[in-house]
Amino acid sequence: MRHVIALDVGGTGMKAALVGADNTLLYEARRPTGRERGPQAIVGEILDFAAELRDKGRELFGRPAEAAGVAVPGIVDEANGVAVYAANLGWRDLPMRRLLSERLGGLPVALGHDVRTGGLAEGRIGAGNGADRFLFIPLGTGIAGAIGIDGRIEAGAHGYAGEIGHVVVRPGGAECSCGQRGCLETIASASAVSRAWAAASGDPRADAADCAKAVESGDPRAEAVWHEAVGALADGLLIGLTLLDPRMLIIGGGLAEAGETLFTPLRAAVAGRATFHKVPRIVPAALGDTAGCLGAGLLAWDLLATKSTEVTA
Fold first, then answer.
1. Which of 23, 215, 260, 303 stands 20 to 30 A from 77 (CA)?
2. Domains and CATH numbers, the chain
3. Residue 297 in contact with residue 19, Cβ under 8 Å?
C-alpha cells in the first residue's frame, strides 16, 4: 500500500496519519505537543512521532512511506522548509524540513502552514471540492484564513496571505496580540465569544458552545454576545469577498460547530451588507479536525508529483 506520513502540529496536541494515494487515512494517532517542556522538547516529540509513523507504515504495509508532510502554526517559510516563528510553541527559525528528513532517513518532506494546509484539504477533497476560488476561515482560538485558487493555496509574497483575523473591524476596540486594536479575532473567534459570554453570564467556565446553546434557548444576554460576534464576522468577510471575489466561503473551527445557529444569521448579515458584491456560498467545513492531516498528506503527494515531473523533464 503506497502511503505518506502526515503530521498536524498544534499548540496543545499533534495529530498524525498515514495517508494513501487516494487521500484515505490508513492509520491515525494523536499525542500531546508537550509545549510546557519547551521548544527543544517539542521538536524532539515531533521527530519521534514521525519516526513511529514510519515504523508503523512498514509494519502495516511492508513498505516504507514515500514522503512526509507536516503542518505547523505560526509564520512558515514553506519554500525553504523553515518554521520561522510560533508564539505558542516558542521556536524561531527552525529548519523543520531538514530535521524531519534527516530523522526519516532522507525521506522527502513538505512543510506547510496549519491553516493553509487545512484549507488545501477542504478545497480539494472537502467542502470546497470543485470551487475554483474559495476562502477558508476557521474560527478557533484565533482566526486565520486560506485563499484557494484553482486547487492551490496562495501563501502571498512573504507567507502572510489570508490573515483575515487581523483585519481591523472595530477601530479602537480591544487590544489584539498582534498589537492592533479591534481585530476581527478579538470579537468573533471562539475564544473571544467564550470570554464575552463568561463575562455576560457571570460564569467563568462558560464557553462559546454554552453561548450558542443559550442563544438557541432565547437568552437575551447570549443573543447580544452572538449578535456582536456575527456582525463583526460579517464585516470581516465582506472585506475578504470585496478583495478576493471568492465563489465560496468555508467556515470551520469550534464556532462553526454551532451549525445554523451561526450560519443562518451570518448569511443574512453578509447579504445585508453587500451592495455591488456577488455574495458567495457560505458553507461549513466538511473535514473537521482531520483537515490538517489530510492537507499534510496532500502536501507530501504534491511534493512527490513535483519531483517526478522534474525527473521526467
1. 23
2. 3-117+289-312 (3.30.420.40), 131-286 (3.30.420.40)
3. yes
Query: For residues 85 and 87, what is the distance between their CA atoms, to the nearest angstrom?
Result: 6
Answer for the pair 78, 37: CB distance below 8 angstroms, yes or no.
Answer: no
First to last CA, the chain: 27
Distance of CA 104 to the CA centre of its chain: 25
Give dist(CA 232, CA 228) in Å, integer: 6
The DSSP element (H or E) to which 133 belongs, if any, is strand 133-138
Written as nine digits, the cell of 218 is 432565547
Q: Give the model confidence (pLDDT) of 146-200 as tens digits.
A: 999 998 999 898 888 999 999 999 999 999 988 999 999 999 999 999 999 999 9
Cell numbers linked to 298: 496532500
**Torsions phi, psi of 139, nearest 5?**
-105, 90
